[in-house]
């Protein structure tokens, strides 16, 4: 692999990486064949291959640079995320595709939602424009995880890298042990945080969790209209696949990183060292710079093309999708991560002079 690239990713790279699989999935849902296998290769094998061949993207955008078209791409991706599940259901329950092609269509759709729609929705829920925010919430609700819009903003960003955050995995906890607490704890803590906000509001309106539930109910109703009970089952399967990737992303990006407790009992401020990062070219484009995770926690409203890579931010040795795949095998994950975590742990201070204890 060549050395680091001298320029940050242009917006065209984000658009090409995220949108290229969409026509492949659309054509594949109608006629199957090579279209589906090409989409699957783009979202899986091609990412792993290109990340090894292309230079790392260490360069940062100019501080204060603006990207006026960045939100337009997010809106387009959000709308695609709403259209792809019904399209996949139509193809997977029709008669034009073989059983392997139907499986590839369902799996590829879940990959696109988890790898691309999730980062897009994540960006949207951090926007101050209420229309963009609502689109992000709708995308998450379409994937039957609308509460993530609440738990991520109100719980994860506040308590990241502490035991109070269900999305932060302590060192030594495997992904499959982490998953139930992350899923159930995220729902519960997000509900608690939204309810607390409502108590302090003079005009609280409808509870956000009710909005999430209504949107998810609309998604499942649409699934039933398209294909009856099999449609509901397939939508649940696609959503579960996307949710698994959301939790994998949280697991990998904060695994084993802990904020220190200050003498006054508070947690230290969030710093670059509390998130894992990567600088691989293709997966950075595919995931809308989500691998530059430390800067996102420092500047949640900063648009994704402007995210920076702090020098003191810990880096994973693999692209984020590959790290997530490794995390599915906890013994392998722990063995491979152990030396990288050890390098982040400061050595114990030497004993004071005259102290004879070992």
From TrEMBL:
<feature type="transmembrane region" description="Helical">
    <location>
        <begin position="69"/>
        <end position="91"/>
    </location>
</feature>
<dbReference type="GO" id="GO:0006629">
    <property type="term" value="P:lipid metabolic process"/>
</dbReference>
<dbReference type="GO" id="GO:0005886">
    <property type="term" value="C:plasma membrane"/>
</dbReference>
<dbReference type="GO" id="GO:0004497">
    <property type="term" value="F:monooxygenase activity"/>
</dbReference>
<comment type="similarity">
    <text>Belongs to the fatty acid desaturase type 1 family. AlkB subfamily.</text>
</comment>
<keyword id="KW-1133">Transmembrane helix</keyword>
<keyword id="KW-0812">Transmembrane</keyword>
<dbReference type="Pfam" id="PF00487">
    <property type="entry name" value="FA_desaturase"/>
</dbReference>
<dbReference type="InterPro" id="IPR033885">
    <property type="entry name" value="AlkB/XylM"/>
</dbReference>
<dbReference type="GO" id="GO:0046872">
    <property type="term" value="F:metal ion binding"/>
</dbReference>
<keyword id="KW-0560">Oxidoreductase</keyword>
<dbReference type="InterPro" id="IPR005804">
    <property type="entry name" value="FA_desaturase_dom"/>
</dbReference>
<keyword id="KW-0479">Metal-binding</keyword>
<keyword id="KW-0997">Cell inner membrane</keyword>
<feature type="transmembrane region" description="Helical">
    <location>
        <begin position="213"/>
        <end position="238"/>
    </location>
</feature>
<keyword id="KW-0472">Membrane</keyword>
<keyword id="KW-0408">Iron</keyword>
<feature type="transmembrane region" description="Helical">
    <location>
        <begin position="36"/>
        <end position="57"/>
    </location>
</feature>
<keyword id="KW-0503">Monooxygenase</keyword>
<keyword id="KW-1003">Cell membrane</keyword>
<feature type="domain" description="Fatty acid desaturase">
    <location>
        <begin position="106"/>
        <end position="308"/>
    </location>
</feature>
<feature type="transmembrane region" description="Helical">
    <location>
        <begin position="132"/>
        <end position="150"/>
    </location>
</feature>
<protein>
    <submittedName>
        <fullName>Alkane 1-monooxygenase</fullName>
    </submittedName>
</protein>
